[in-house]
Design brief:
By secondary structure, this protein is an alpha/beta fold. The chain is about 30% helix and about 20% strand. The chain has a single domain, classed as TIM Barrel. Strand 7 and strand 8 form a beta hairpin. Helix 1 packs parallel to helix 8, helix 2 packs parallel to helix 3 and helix 7 packs across helix 8. GO terms for molecular function: monooxygenase activity; oxidoreductase activity, acting on paired donors, with incorporation or reduction of molecular oxygen. This is Luciferase-like monooxygenase. Keywords: Flavoprotein, FMN, Monooxygenase, Oxidoreductase.
């Protein structure tokens, strides 16, 4: 008998919501999103609802230079903040490849995986506009150069996560040996704009390799574990494919009226993602149709204070027989195997 298709459900929890005017309709003071309580409440709500993954968007520059949200807490810091106050949900910050040193990026993510006991992930960020490049005193990369930089950084991060073998730390009190140096390796990575010898300063992550999520248009193939696809549901050659779904749900007002009120403040420009504006029941029907077509969904609630509770109370329970449940690690939650260390068979 062929097993029934399963969906992994993730949610993006940046700011007050995906709509640029969400902060005006959040029901809390505008600056509250910059405090730890708001981050903690959103992530705990998502964990209690049964989401297997929460992601945190980020960019090298503020999300808006106009009247809308003009600041955010750094994504890696947000994920680290809730790492020890959660127990099941995966946590994946967006970290940028063009404005972050690969060694420090890999170290930060490895530390997150240790802090969460194996629930860490990474959404690959490729911000490359003039304002982003200016943050490191550079000019934007040409498209081909950005493609190479992205592949180089992801490949280097993966090599660094393997630079300590699983049994490198021995902690032998009798001999005073903390680690076996033969199981710690240099990686000698050379990119177009960087060189890294390694090894990482942090032992191998509990998952071996963190879960890497990347826009399918980047074409990272096997370097990504999850390809994020849009409304066209494009094919991808990574192990898993998640579709991006923006949601505006019926609440005290119909969804179409809610969206009109939000757009009256700032228009939510199309992003290429699927956008559901309507009832929770209709969204459940859509998700059942997507099961077997994609492996998962990443929701982008228009206004977290309104749409996230509806997802938790009406959408996820209706999909109980269809959705994957959180496992011990994020890889387990997504049905991904733990990779073998590339150095495990090296000659000593």
């Amino acid at each position: 008998m062929t097993p029934s298709p399963r969906l992994s459900l993730a949610v993006e929890l940046d700011g007050d919501g995906a709509h640029p005017a969400a902060w005006r309709h959040s029901g809390r003071p505008p600056g509250a999103v910059l405090g730890g309580a708001a981050v903690r409440a959103a992530v705990h709500g998502a964990e209690q609802a049964g989401f297997v993954l929460a992601t945190f968007a980020d960019s090298p520059v503020p999300p808006s230079s106009g009247l809308d949200a003009a600041g955010r807490l750094e994504a890696g810091t947000r994920a680290a903040f809730v790492a020890t106050t959660t127990s099941r949900i995966g946590l994946a910050p967006t970290l940028q490849v063009a404005t972050t040193e690969p060694f420090h990026l890999a170290t930060q993510l490895a530390a997150l995986d240790h802090a969460t006991h194996g629930r860490g992930g990474w959404v690959v960020g490729t911000a490359n506009d003039p304002a982003a490049a200016a943050t490191i005193g550079a000019t934007p990369l040409a498209p081909a150069d950005l493609d190479r930089e992205t592949r180089d950084v992801v490949d280097t991060a993966r090599a660094l996560w393997d630079s300590w073998e699983d049994d490198a730390v021995i902690k032998d009190v009798a001999t005073g040996r903390y680690l076996d140096p033969d199981r710690v390796h240099h990686v000698d990575a050379v990119g177009a704009r960087f060189t890294v010898r390694g090894p990482l300063i942090t032992p191998r992550p509990p998952q071996g390799q963190l879960v890497v999520l990347a826009d399918a248009r980047l074409g990272l193939g096997g370097l990504a574990d999850v390809s994020l696809v849009r409304a066209d549901l494009a094919a991808a050659d990574s192990p898993l494919r998640f579709v991006e779904v923006e949601v505006v749900l019926d609440a005290e007002e119909p969804a179409v009226d809610r969206l009109a009120a939000l757009d009256a403040d700032t228009v939510w420009e199309p992003s290429g993602a699927l956008r559901h504006v309507g009832s929770a029941d209709a969204l459940v029907t859509l998700l059942r149709e997507l099961a077997g077509v994609v492996d998962g969904v990443r929701f982008h609630p228009a206004v977290q204070a309104v749409d996230l509770p509806i997802l938790a109370d009406r959408v996820l329970p209706a999909l109980a027989a269809l959705r994957r449940s959180p496992g011990r690690t994020l890889r387990e939650s997504l049905g991904l195997p733990r990779p073998v260390n590339r150095f495990a068979a090296s000659v000593r």
